[in-house]
Please model this.
Amino acid sequence: MGDNARMRISARADYAVRAALQLAACTDSGPVKAETIAVAQEIPHKFLEGILNDMRRGGLVTSQRGGNGGYRLARAATDISIADVIRTVDGPLVSVRGVRPPELSYSGPAESLLPLWIALRANVRQILDGVSLADVATAGLPTEVMDLTEDPAAWTNP
Amino acid sequence: MGDNARMRISARADYAVRAALQLAACTDSGPVKAETIAVAQEIPHKFLEGILNDMRRGGLVTSQRGGNGGYRLARAATDISIADVIRTVDGPLVSVRGVRPPELSYSGPAESLLPLWIALRANVRQILDGVSLADVATAGLPTEVMDLTEDPAAWTNP
DNA sequence: ATGTTTCCTAGCAGAGTAGTAGGAAATAAC
DNA sequence: GTTATTTCCTACTACTCTGCTAGGAAACAT
Model:
């Protein structure tokens, strides 16, 4: 018990999204070096290299080596969702006891737990699949998302 | 990479909720033994004992020792949310890189990430705070939650 | 007293997290 | 073709978290 949490965005995922946002921001000034991103977003350089590599393997970014090389987004920033990034570097968005909800089976009074986890997942997807890198980079989050942040209670802790 | 996921309901949390549901189901037949719950829900007995203890410390259940002892809910099943249970055994629902969203600060094109995480958290809370043990135990999930499970896409993997 | 059941402490094997280190391979500029 | 640059790859480390198990002490009912 302590500061561990259940919906946890890992350092990897957070860094990956921020790096992707940085790429979205400098979309037409040639490839961006890992080092540049690392400095701009205060991310450990070598750690970031590995993350960018995962994103390349996942088809999210393309890379070029050598002097004046670097990374750029493989698709338009409007066409890459936050969920795409997180899934690429960290795997599935939602799991229960290590497996994805559809593989679960409950009995007795717990039977309705499965639909609950499904609803939870659908809800998370709605947000993370529905927001693109461009939305965040240009500070133009969808109104449904902005609406959720209106309630001051959303900003307080528990 | 692999089967790790970002919104992960741990075994602890899953077991805790199921145990609480079992208690909600036998609310007026006297205290329920850990062993009984363990068998009914196929949860490792000694592991469950620890979880029930955490729930007692968290004020969710009361206990009685000795022959004919066991556990019962401390409040009405309508008055305990799924979020209450998860938070009691696992800590805060949502965190980014180990800290809760309000403590974060982003710069440059990542500035709108904070409102995004806040919206995500609000959305998760909406579900988990809004569903009580009684809702699940009686298979009477709120209609907003049921609506989310209507779309067949909610049941498919990615 | 006796049996039952919770409560407490300790430990443990495996996996995941957040990095670091060092160098090989590709590319561009000269 | 050499050199500087930058990605790419492998391996390693230290720490924490997860999902348990073991053994017994304390409380309670009969």
